[in-house]
Amino acid sequence: MIKLYGFGPGFGLPEISPFVTKTEVQLRMAGLAYGKEKARPTASPKGQLPYIEDDAEAVADSTFIRAHIEGKYGFDFDAPLNLQQRAQAWAFERMIEHHMYWALVGARWVNPENFVKGPAHFFDSAPSHMREKLREDAQFRVAENYLISGLGRHAPDEDVDLAVRSLLSLSVQLGDKPYLMGDTPCGADATAFGMVVGILTPFFASPLRERAEQFSNLVAYVDRMMGRYYPEFAWTPLLEAA
């Protein structure tokens, strides 16, 4: 059986990481049995989560895990899509993972209140004399990467404005369809869901979340995907909470 390694639940989500969420949803899309364990990124072959163990093979990175599932188990996540739609789905995934992701990072790690409420607790089990130093170093490294990504070079309102343009593109693509590319979920839906639910979780307050909540079709989409792929999770539908 496949073993998935991730961070585990937290921040009002069934899984903290949008990339682990992506892989977990894709495993569920493919109908594959799996077990899940918590792990540290340093345990992964590529120093990041998720990674899976499948028989004797370890596969890291959510995109390569998807390729592994498709190659070994013959499951085509984009089966309903034609070649042009597959290209569009790939482009949306790149936008989500390389632009929207950094907006989420800024909201969680760079925002001081959210850092204290959320990521700072990753270090609660560290020895007390080292804890604050580890927190400061980790936040500094993430903020540095946020700067390198490009979004961190802008004023707080400007980086949110840029992120909202990506949310708008996603909202326009979704339209009144149940899923990004039509009536059937595809691989990109796992990516989109993992990122957008991470932005919309009620656990964190941020200007990014406030702006995201204005896209009612994305809010409904998150509720729809949560109900379909995490029916066991106690999620309060965002449309009802609004």
What distinguishing features does this structure have?
about 240 residues, alpha+beta, Glutaredoxin, Glutathione S-transferase Yfyf (Class Pi), Chain A, domain 2, 2 domains, 4-stranded mixed beta sheet, 10 helices, 4 strands, about 55% helix, globular
Describe the protein in words:
By secondary structure, the protein is an alpha+beta fold. The protein has 2 domains: 1-77, Glutaredoxin; 79-242, Glutathione S-transferase Yfyf (Class Pi), Chain A, domain 2 (Up-down Bundle), CATH 1.20.1050. 57% of the residues lie in helices and 7% in strands. The chain has helices spanning 18-29, 62-73, 83-110, 112-117, 128-149, 156-174, 187-200, 207-212, 216-229, 238-241, and strands spanning 2-6, 34-38, 51-54, 57-60. Strands 2-1-3-4 form a 4-stranded mixed β-sheet, covered by helices on one side. Helix 1 (18-29) packs across helix 7. The model has no long low-confidence stretch (mean pLDDT 94).
- Count of the separate structural domains: 2
Order of helices and strands: EHEEEHHHHHHHHH
What is the percentage of strand-forming residues? Answer: 5-15%
The strands making up the biggest β-sheet line up spatially as 2-1-3-4
The count of helical stretches stands at: 10
Q: Determine the N-to-C terminus distance.
A: 40 Å
Counted beta strands: 4
Mean pLDDT: 94
Low-confidence stretches: none
Tell me the name of the CATH class of the largest domain: Mainly Alpha
Query: CATH topology of the largest domain, what is it called?
Result: Glutathione S-transferase Yfyf (Class Pi), Chain A, domain 2
The helicity comes to: 55-70%
